[in-house]
Design goal:
single chain; 452 residues; alpha+beta; PmbA/TldD fold; 2 domains; five-stranded mixed β-barrel; 10 helices; 19 strands; 22% helix
Length: 452
């Protein structure tokens, strides 16, 4: 695998080729990845997977016309053909008044921030299959040792290292490397048609920051045993509490609604919400691309703009849209440093280490006055309308009775509208940074529960 400097040079080289061949402007992405995945089941090795990839993506502009191409053939002749093909395609493409590179005066210059994403000391792309197998076995063994676990879907462990580079024809070229490690276990409880499944996992940029395989295994086992023999809920209005594992999806719907593409296409349930009270007062949503060794940290965005921590929701108020350059031009605004892109196609919009700030209430206090409610640990299906905000998803979890979690429940649907859900949301004080998007335990009043 190339190092970041070599990756940057490769991206810059094809941009130079494109402008020399007649493109008015161009940008390129180079992405390489090496990963090793080990899975075990019932104490035996089940699969060993190793992958290596390297791809180059080129976007060219001819006036207001553009085209994107990509290749995994990085030979000189192949790159020459790629450039010619891209320019020919762009000349035949329809004009787009908003197309173009990011504003030159907004590009990141100087050294990128040090985010500690590359854990060479932990093994990175050289982690051994034997060491990962042992981690996977430890996780599964710990899960299967929990009384009540009846079967296993297996344990797994992984290690990877990736390089990402971006170059533009108007003065930007940079790259960075990142490692990733993971451990997981998935087990079952019950028998026959009454079986239930649950899991636990940990992901980290640095191997030493992974949670213990034994801890992950016990979490998976404890979770599934607690869910065995679920009952049914009565239908009707109910207070719903979301476990942090599933509550983070509520922020995903928010980001989709305030992304530039949704606003320019007028397909967002928050289209007229800028500067208004979207959440209850006291709720704050933040995005921090500079979080050290964060799972989604990055030194610059997908167009070469600098990134910085931002407040998306402040005391319940929606502070701004998330914009790449094209959507910003269309709206007469400035890009926000949230552009993201892969090897193929142009930029879209994405957050980094997105999270909802912790509230002030302990979880026990959050639920102590709930006479009849439900604590959600699993969401099923994708019944969410991004245009209207209507929300309806299958769910499973635990009944809340007189302020306490009691028996497991399953096969029911929770429904509402995201506008109402956000305004009636209260966060607990138990925020932990475990995933790419993180929230504390969340309580929402007045949702509708329908038993299956």
């Amino acid at each position: 695998m190339l190092n970041p400097d070599q990756a940057r040079e490769r991206a810059a080289d094809i941009v130079t080729r494109a402008t020399a061949a007649g493109a008015d402007a161009a940008d390129a992405v180079y992405a390489a990845d090496m990963s090793l995945d080990i899975s075990v089941r019932l104490g035996a090795l089940e699969d060993v997977g190793r992958s290596e990839s390297a791809e180059l993506g080129l976007r060219v502009f001819v006036g207001k016309r553009s085209a994107s191409v990509s290749t995994s053939d990085l030979s000189s002749d192949a790159l020459t053909a790629l450039v010619d093909r891209a320019i020919a395609m762009a000349r035949e493409a329809p004009e787009d008044a908003w197309a173009g590179l990011a504003p030159a005066n907004r590009l990141m210059h100087g050294a990128p921030p040090l985010l500690d994403l590359d854990d060479l000391a932990g093994g990175g792309d050289s982690a051994s299959p034997e060491s990962l197998r042992d981690v996977a076995l430890e996780a599964e063994d710990a899960a299967r040792a929990v009384p009540g676990v009846t079967n296993s879907e297996g344990g797994s462990a992984s290690a990877s290292r990736s390089i990402w580079a971006l170059a533009t024809s108007h003065g930007f070229a940079a790259a960075y490397a990142a490692t990733g490690y993971g451990v997981s276990a998935s087990v079952l409880a019950g028998e026959g048609g009454a079986m239930v499944r649950d899991y636990a996992y940990s992901s980290a940029r640095h191997r030493k920051r992974l949670e213990s395989a034994a801890v992950i295994g016990r979490q998976a086992g404890d979770r599934v045993v607690a869910r065995a023999n679920p009952g049914r809920l009565a239908s009707g209005p109910m207070t719903v509490v979301f476990d942090p594992r599933v509550g983070s999806s509520l922020l995903g719907h928010l980001i989709g609604a305030i992304s530039g593409g949704s606003i320019t296409r007028k397909t967002s349930f928050l289209l007229d919400a800028l500067g208004t009270q979207v959440f209850a007062r006291g709720v704050t949503v933040l995005d921090d691309p500079h979080r050290p060794h964060g799972l989604r940290s990055r030194p610059f965005d997908g167009e070469g703009l600098p990134v910085s921590p931002s407040t998306i929701i402040a005391d319940g108020m929606l502070e701004g849209w998330l914009l790449d350059s094209a959507s910003a031009r269309q709206l007469g605004l400035e890009p926000t440093g949230h552009a993201a892109r892969g090897v193929g196609g142009g930029p879209g919009v994405s957050t980094s280490n997105l999270h909802m700030a912790a509230g002030k209430i302990p979880v026990a206090t959050l639920i102590e006055d709930i006479t009849d409610g439900v604590f959600i640990t699993e969401l099923i299906g994708m019944g969410v309308n991004g245009v209207t905000g209507d929300y309806s998803r299958g769910a499973a979890g635990f009944r809340i009775e007189n302020g306490l979690l009691t028996g497991p429940v399953a096969e029911f649907t929770i429904a509402g509208n995201l506008k109402d859900m956000y305004r009636n949301l209260t966060p607990a004080n138990d925020l932990e940074f475990r995933y790419g998007t993180n929230v504390p335990t969340l309580r929402i009043e007045g949702m509708t529960v329908a038993s299956g």
